[in-house]
Amino acid sequence: MDRLLSDAEIIERVFHHIDNNTTDLGDEVWREPVQNYRCEKRFAAELQMMRRLPMPFCPSAAIRDVGAYVARISAGTPLIVVRGQDRVVRAFRNACRHRGRQLVEGNGCTRSFVCGYHGWAYRLDGKLAKIPHEEGFPQIDKRELGLAEVAVTEKGGIVFVTQEDEISDGALDSLPDMFLEEQFVFDAKDYLQPFNWKLNQEAAMEGYHIKATHSESFYPYGFDNLNVVENFGRNSRITFPFRRIEELRDVPESDRDISGKVTYANVLFPNVLIAVLSRHTAMAVAEPVSPFETHMYTYRLSNPGNDGSSEALSEARYDADFVAETGLMEDLATTRSIQAGLDSGANTHFTYGHFEKAIVHFHKTLADQLSRAGFAD
Ligand code: FES
Ligand SMILES: [Fe+2]
Predict the structure, then answer these.
(1) Which residues are CB-contacts of 343 (< 8 A; sequence separation ≥ 6)?
(2) pTM of the predicted model over 0.90
(3) Which of 113, 207, 300, 319 is the S-S candidate for 279 at Cβ 3.0 to 4.6 Å?
(4) Domain ranges of the chain
(5) Which ligand is nearest to the CA of 95?
(6) What confidence score (pLDDT) does residue 377 get?
(7) For residue range 61-101, what is the model confidence (pLDDT) as tens digits?
């Protein structure tokens, strides 16, 4: 499926499931070798694949101002993504062209990048602007020593970075917009977790676990195993309805507003989740560090209609804190536990069933992309 259902269609589908005690089903069962979460060779192939895909890097809103940058490792490569004087976003390999010191770390805003080692200075467009005591380098042509640039695309409110020649299938062209211009970042955090990046992604891709895992956090507001699951391109959207969606039964179809009645979990292949919640939207990047470690980069954004007033902002924060302190903690604990359990040797494969349709799509897509990138098991 390439078109996502409209909100009205989602509401009807959810009502159908409530009335019939059903949920969306995939038509395939998938068996994934446990070794694929542990193997260094497979991990290296996944990174290699990521370097050849447009990887969602951060929300555009995280680098809204001229000079705003995010510097972090992506698919094993230290990168800087920055908005230039011309408001164009550029990406560079994060290393000085003199002797390679990294120029910046984390998030910030600057007029230029000045290396902390000997003070070589680069403009926001990457050009080498200044070498202190330049007479020490009579042979150097400054035009050849700008920062090493990497391909970047800004689309639908997200910045994508492609490090190497792309394995292109035009996937970005058909990607629906994820954020509107008016949405702003009100919180950004990053933290390390002891699990494989794929286990993190899988946690967001089904509602089969809601009752057992989130018995006191999400389940009282939601349903047991009741979801709409749409695969689109390499990605998926999983709809988690709230019980209060019932309020829309009496509302004429044309007047129904789905906001606050469902959570949309958009899983962007390979390693990003964008969850549209009642009063905020969360974007989480699961950056692989090793087969056993993932660096999470999370952004929380306002929802459309939030005017940034202190009242609207505190409602968004309340929503974000509830999710972060309850459901997210439960998911992270489960994911860490799965990773630790890999060592038990109990399973040679994990089996993903008909309720885990989005996970099956994820693994099929991953296998397909790995083989296109030349990796065979
Ligand atoms: S390494 Fe950057 S100025 Fe020398
Ligand atoms: Fe969960």
Answers:
(1) none
(2) yes
(3) 319
(4) 7-53+176-372, 55-166
(5) 1
(6) 63
(7) 999 999 999 999 999 999 999 999 999 999 999 999 999 99
